[in-house]
Write a structure and sequence with these properties.
heterodimer; A: about 110 residues; mainly beta; seven-stranded mixed β-sheet; globular; B: six-stranded mixed β-sheet; five-stranded antiparallel β-sheet; 11 strands
Chain lengths: ~110, ~110
């Protein structure tokens, strides 16, 4: 049973470009969470999704960031018009049922904005 | 808003010592509590999970406990080894998200 998979593992973008981060949850998991770890800071919650629904996006910046978890395929975290402050490690986690379950984390995507 | 504090922020010990890492939550209504290990530039490795009905978990040289009444958790590492050197993160969930501490950076000196 493969764990949570994220790709790419490393992503370099220039200011103003778009970044698309992908997360494939563990098999049988229908709940996905995205977290961001800024340099020298702890992990912060961004968004919680179930298939085709955003459940909680209270941690997501209001502009330029969006997330989806389609019926088929991985969850996507999309950052438009990236700025240097978006440079961080983005972690995805999944759980089998409700958010009260433990969450299993992926290896993360390290985004560097030049 | 939940705030998670980990003490100490950094710790350096000689090999073989037993040590305790501390974690406290401002909101003690924690459902699950997890301890993770993070190596530099790497992802999170789950070490121990204390679920809502539990107070303690053990795995090898690691023991974690949770006192829900005070919102405090400790991670005990016995007979530390250089390979234990990493950042240790605690996280608790109260609803949809896990709230993470900023970690304790552990260095075990051979």
């Amino acid at each position: 049973n493969a764990g949570v998979m994220q790709n790419p593992r490393h992503l370099v973008r220039r200011r103003g470009q778009e970044a698309r981060l992908r997360c494939s949850p563990m098999k049988g998991h229908s709940h996905v969470y995205w977290y961001r770890q800024l340099p020298e800071e702890g992990l912060k919650f961004m968004v919680y999704l179930q298939k085709e629904n955003i459940i909680d996006e209270s941690g997501m910046p209001k502009e330029r960031f969006s997330a989806e978890f389609p019926k088929e395929g991985p969850s996507i975290l999309r950052i438009q018009q990236v700025v240097r402050g978006d440079s961080a490690a983005y972690f995805c986690a999944s759980s089998p049922t409700s958010s009260a379950d433990t969450q299993y984390f992926g290896p993360g995507t390290r985004l560097t904005v030049l | 808003k939940q705030e998670v504090t980990q003490i100490p922020a950094a710790l350096s010990v000689p090999e073989g010592e037993n040590l305790v890492l501390n974690c406290s939550f401002t909101d003690s209504a924690i459902y699950n509590l997890q301890w993770f290990r993070q190596d530099p530039g790497k992802g999170l490795t789950s070490l121990l999970l204390i679920q809502s009905s539990q107070r303690e978990q053990t795995s090898g040289r690691l023991n974690a406990s949770l006192d829900k009444s005070s919102g405090r958790s400790t991670l005990y590492i016995a007979a530390s080894q250089p390979g234990d050197s990493a950042t240790y993160l605690c996280a608790g969930n109260t609803g949809n998200q896990f709230y993470f501490g900023t970690g304790t950076s552990l260095t075990v000196i051979p």
